[in-house]
Amino acid sequence: MKGKIILRGEEAYIMHLELPNACWHELWHMVKDELGIRFRSVEDILFDFAVFRKDGDKCSVVVYCIKTRLNYEGVKLKGVYPLQFNVVKKYIHRIKERSCFLMFFYENKIYLIKLEKGIVVLNSIYDCCDGLRLTDFFSWPGEIRTLYHINISKELMDSLPEENLKLVDLGMFGKEFI
Amino acid sequence: MRDINFLPCQFVEKKILKYNRITTALIIFLAVLNITVFQWGIRNLGCLVKEETEARPEQHEVKSTTKKDNSTILSMDSFSSDLAIKLEFRRAAISGRFITFEMPYSGKQDYYRIIEEIEEKKKYRIVSILKSEEGMGGAFLRISLEVIL
After folding, report:
1. Which residue, among A5, A8, A46, would best test binding to B if mutated, counting the most B CBs under 10 Å from its CB?
2. Which has the least CB within 10 A, A164, B2, B16, B129?
């Protein structure tokens, strides 16, 4: 049976690339080569990408990278999923806006995500131990005024400095969800 | 959103290799299937044509009639251009390559003359020359020829 790895507390490095329009596996090779040039080696880098926009013979690709040292010897692996992407995947059908923020709390960490056309374009993880400081989060560019939140108590939401934000509660989830 | 999966490179490469192999195998299978169906179709078409030919013998009759008609016309053309202008004849009948006509008989020399006339053309084979009994209009010769087309 193939195993599934969930990475918790790992922030993905996100970059945008303009590539020629091609099929998925050709794009994958192009992204791999591009990462090889930027980081010299892709041995320790886990990556994937999402096609953000196709425009004639060009396509705009959002590339996600995580640097990690996992040992995969003899492992039958189905997939490696960072927690924030897993949560987005499970809640995407409940998000109606084209562009919005998604925030959730899990194991003393606040995960903040910016979604555009259902694709993660920015992500951040904040340590919750010293209290919530979300100034960086609200300094992100754009005119997005909707914030979906999961697993966050009302008291915590009330402490948000931003006032003109539309808040949508998507409920709670526990460890069994992950 | 597509399932974002951070699989290590070697796993993805294996996946791509597997995908390529399956695609190649599928293409080969479809090509073989295509060729088989094409050949089966050709064989079936051959059988169909054969069955159709056997089922309609009247068509062949029509074709042979057309050929016969054509030979009659050719025989008539030949007869009218070669013999009819030189010989005094009556009651000519043409059927296919066979021509029968009658001409008045005045004496033995008529036999030689008609045979000479016909053989000179090298287009006819004499089937028979018969002399009729003398009647009201006198005796006459009934000549049957086969045109060599």
Report:
1. A46
2. A164
Instruction: Tell me the mean pLDDT in the region A55-73.
Output: 87
Please indicate whether, in this complex, the C-beta atoms of B7 and A64 are within 8 angstroms of each other: no
Measured between CB atoms, which of B1, B6, B20 is closest to A119?
B1
Q: Which residue has the tokens 């009729």?
A: B132
Query: DSSP 3-state helix, strand, coil percentages of chain B (rounded to 5)?
Result: 60, 20, 25
Are B44 and B75 members of one domain?
A: no
Q: How many domains does chain B have?
A: 2
Percent of chain A past pLDDT 90, that is, above it, reads 20
Q: What pLDDT was estimated at residue A177?
A: 67
Asked whether the whole model's pTM tops 0.80, one would answer no
**B19 chain-A contacts, CB cut-off 8 A:** 25
Q: Is B84 exposed, middle or buried (0-12, 13-18, 19+ CB in 10 A)?
A: middle
What's the ipTM?
0.81
Residues B140 and B80 in one domain: yes
Contact check, Cβ <8 Å, B16/A32: no
User: Is the pLDDT confidence value at A81 over 70?
Assistant: yes
pLDDT of B44 reads 85
